[in-house]
Amino acid sequence: MISLVFIAALFALLLYVVANMPPMGDPDNPTNSSEVIERYLEKGGEETHADNVVTGIIINYRGYDTMGEVTVIFCALAAVLAVLGRERRGRIYAYVDRSRVPSSVIVRTMVALLVPFIILFSVYTILHGEISPGGGFQGGAIVGGSMIVFTTIFGLLESSQRIPQRLRFPLEGSAVITFFAVGALGLAGGGNFLTFAWPEIAGNLQPSLVVWLTVLVETGIGLGGAMVLISILFSMIREEEEIAVVP
Amino acid sequence: MRLFHNYHYIASMLLFCIGLYTVIVRRNIIKKLIGLNIMETSVFLFLISLGYLDGGIAPIGIGGADPSRMVNPLPQALILTGIVVAVSVTALALALVILLYRQYGTLDVDRLFRDEETGGEEGEEKGETA
Known about the structure:
The structure holds two protein chains of two kinds. By secondary structure, chain A is mainly α.
């Protein structure tokens, strides 16, 4: 009861603050009228060669931010594996009957039919990310979500056979590795770290090459994010007892 | 009236209060985590709404889109970072919750504290409460 009173008081306070904020959607708002935003919107396309300004900001203007983000999600995987432990190479540990939710044949058929198309959609999201809404993280999250559905319905054994360990383990670090490699390319081109797309610094890079580098970074982030999510899922769903040896 | 014009902000404040209430009141740790995620979502909604423009278009410069009508792209880019960090935090918290459940067999905060006081004897009832 006292917590309800406290929450109500907090809500009233927040409402008071909202009532004194500038109206939403006004172009003269302090958040919308900064010179940085205008520069991003007007020059973003030609400076980053990404028509989607958000992708340009993420990959180029604020590349250090995204590099930290990639490192954060990798560290999350490392921490989860440190807490829960990782399966040994070539084995999985699960009770078959426990990691799978009992479901009717309709659910199983629909999931088996839809998962390939969901993964195809995520490929579109990743590769089309610099000219339409989307990008590496979103695509990776879609793959991870589809594998969560698949694992829930078909069980851990089935889904670890679909995504073999010898592919999953090396690809977990692909986001970090791609980002650092492409960032170091900016150094090699005579600019600063992560400046591969700035024409005045790395003017010798062709625009099409810059677009391909962006796609490469997005693909690396997508693959790495997807594999990190799947590895977190597998380590959470796994039980202690070993039941099968997966090649 | 300005308060009702800012209905996005009101919705996000409401979500924040719902999340905080869940975190404070619920005894199940998983529900506390869900409340934490609702709070995070409310902050994301608030920051995205700050960058909204009346009648604005997506910040994608294809087909000669007018840059002065585009919404603010900066909150969107930063909220993407925020979402990834929130997912990472949730994953780590869930891993810790799994360990806690394996050790004590319960997710109830009150029972967890009681177990701690009585020296963890009730850890024997593992798997009893679902």
